[in-house]
Amino acid sequence: MRAAKPARMGRFPSGARSPHAMNAAKVAIIGFGTIGSGVAKILLESGNRLGRHAGRPIELVRIVDPDLVRPRNVAVPRELLTSDLEVVLNDPEIVAAVELIGGLEPARSIVLKLLASGKNVVTANKALLAEHGRELFDCARRHGRSIAFEASVGGGIPIIAAIGQSLTANQVLSIHGILNGTSNFILTQMEEHHAEYSAAVAEAQRLGYAEANPAMDVNGSDAAQKLAILAHLAFGAQVDWKAIPRVGIDTVDVSDLRYAKELGYSIKLLAIAELASDGLELHVSPTLVRHGTPLAEVRGAYNAIRVVGDAVGRVFFHGLGAGQMPTASAVVADLIDTIVGRAAITFRALGLWSGRGEAAVTLRDPAKSAGRYYLRFNVQDSPGVLAQIAGILGKHAISIASVIQHETEEEADGVVPLVIMTHKAPEGAMIQAMAAIDRLPFVHPTSVRMRVRD
Amino acid sequence: MRAAKPARMGRFPSGARSPHAMNAAKVAIIGFGTIGSGVAKILLESGNRLGRHAGRPIELVRIVDPDLVRPRNVAVPRELLTSDLEVVLNDPEIVAAVELIGGLEPARSIVLKLLASGKNVVTANKALLAEHGRELFDCARRHGRSIAFEASVGGGIPIIAAIGQSLTANQVLSIHGILNGTSNFILTQMEEHHAEYSAAVAEAQRLGYAEANPAMDVNGSDAAQKLAILAHLAFGAQVDWKAIPRVGIDTVDVSDLRYAKELGYSIKLLAIAELASDGLELHVSPTLVRHGTPLAEVRGAYNAIRVVGDAVGRVFFHGLGAGQMPTASAVVADLIDTIVGRAAITFRALGLWSGRGEAAVTLRDPAKSAGRYYLRFNVQDSPGVLAQIAGILGKHAISIASVIQHETEEEADGVVPLVIMTHKAPEGAMIQAMAAIDRLPFVHPTSVRMRVRD
Question: Which of A7, A9, A316 sits opposite B339 (nearest CB)?
Answer without folding.
Answer: A9
